[in-house]
Amino acid sequence: MFLPKAELHLHIEGTLEPELAFELAARNGVTLPYADTDALREAYRFEDLQSFLNLYYELMAVLRTERDFEDLANAYLARAAAQGVRHAEIFFDPQAHTSRGLDIGTVVEGLWRALGNSEANHGVSTRLILCFLRDESAESALATLDAAKPYLDRITGVGLDSAEVGHPPVKFRAVYEAAAALGLRRVAHAGEEGPPEYITEALDVLGVERVDHGLRCVEDPALVERLVRDRVPLTLCPLSNVRLRTVDTLADHPLPAMLDAGLMCTVNSDDPAYFGGYAGDNFDAVRATLGLTDERLRELARNSFLASFLEDDEELRARYLAEVEAHTFR
Ligand code: ADE
Ligand code: ZN
Predict the structure, then answer these.
(1) How far is the centre of ligand 2, averaged over its atoms, from the C-alpha of 22 (Å)?
(2) What positions does the domain Adenosine deaminase occupy (predicted)?
(3) What CA–CA distances, in Å, run from 50 to 45, 47, 211?
(4) pLDDT tens, residue by residue, 120-163
(5) Ligand 1 neighbourhood includes 240 CB (under 6 angstroms)
(6) Does the domain made of 5-319 have the CATH classification 3.40.50.1400?
(7) In angstroms, what is the span from residue 7 Cα to ligand 2's centroid?
(8) Looking at residues 45-69, what average pLDDT do you find?
(9) 278, pLDDT greater than 90
(10) With a threshold of 0.70, does the pTM exceed it?
């Protein structure tokens, strides 16, 4: 039995497995510049975040219809459920699709066909988080939020992703203010490749409630102290950090030290089709390589539900937390 957990850092476009990419390419008459799935997998050798993003955006060309987004999300939910994920707060990148001529409604409605039935079909509750691409303009982010207005009953919050360095959180002050005024929850990637100052800025300027990655906080003791004091959740993605060379090897990952420091860490998969594992695989890897005790693993699972946006269903959160406490390791 997998430890029950919430996944809080998951890009739905990053769950596109090579087999599904080729299936959708055939269905939509799109030609991919790879001979087959093996050739595509050969391209999964990344130097850094940007080299990954180049492939990530390239493969999105196969996503064209509501049914494509539905199939993508159902494939993820089935795999996540099989690894103990009970609740998933799922990122999507509308600008990566509207820039290719798709309507944002195609994306949201398609994802919702899967997410809206996920509790019944997969036993996984879900929330949807709209991410702005930080290497696009602030105006484009505002236009995206505006285009999303008809769908806000399906969208719980906003996030910020894509190429981090050179695109500080302050660039998106206005759109985060507008999102807050609409009652949306706020998160942002910060401190993945960018400096600790971006984490501070995401908290102070964007008012984020969770920090996605936040890994580089360890370089600033005063920031660590603040994150501990305020119990700010960090959505760490260990296998992603290895594949994108944010850490040299998994054995070098600061997760154990971060937990020892009292940081509210969670473990997530980021883009599991590209980084070698889903949520349960990330838990297994940190257990095997970093020697986390059963109680540390239970703490990570507990944190994931405590940090989730389940304020609208505290009964469900309590049920999940009870599942975590009842779990027996072997
Ligand atoms: N988009 C998808 N995965 C991402 C990551 N790890 N960092 C920033 N943007 C992303
Ligand atoms: Zn991410």
Answers:
(1) 24
(2) 4-316
(3) 12, 8, 20
(4) 999 999 999 999 999 999 999 999 999 999 999 999 999 999 99
(5) yes
(6) no
(7) 12
(8) 98
(9) yes
(10) yes
